[in-house]
Amino acid sequence: xxxxxxxxxxxxxxxxxxAVVLCLVMCFRCCGxxxxxxxxxxxxxxxxxxRNLQIEQQIKYAEIEKWVAESDKQIRKQPTxxxxxxxxxxxxxxxxxxxxxxxxxxxxxxQQAEDEIVALxxxxxxxxxxxxxxxxxxxxxxxxxxxxxxxxxxxxxxAAQDEQKDEETPAEADxxxxxxxxxxxxxxxSK
Length: 191
What we know:
Elements: H1 2-31, E1 35-38, H2 40-46, H3 48-77, H4 81-127, E2 132-135, E3 144-145, H5 147-166, H6 170-189
Parallel strand pairs: 1-2, 1-3
Helix pairs in contact: 2-5, 3-4, 4-5
């Protein structure tokens, strides 16, 4: 009985949501507002921001896996079962802290990535004269797809950030050269 109720509730909610979207579309058309749409699946599949976030997550996950493997070796090296249990409890607490920190970092980076994407969507939509942007999957008909423009903007921002990381200002280069020359005599005098 509850399964039928949950299905009924799902379809009622879906129908109401569709009706709201259709009403919005009709209102936008009556008012002459141009509506832009975003294909979120395509956006996420081709976004360098999302790709970089996924790479960061994979690196962090690999670091935790490596730490777990090293911890397991440490536990096995313990001479007694009591020492193994003691170390295991300590390492489990440390693992829980690492996992929590990992989850918090991922949540923060995900929120930052989402904010960056939303800002770029708003910027592209504004530049093209759109007041409203909807998710394409929630729209039955109409709207101008700006997904490719947003992807291009995201990739341009990512490329500019990469170039900025790679480039040093002349002052930074001079400061590094000065530090290197100051360190050289100190190393020689210690010999």
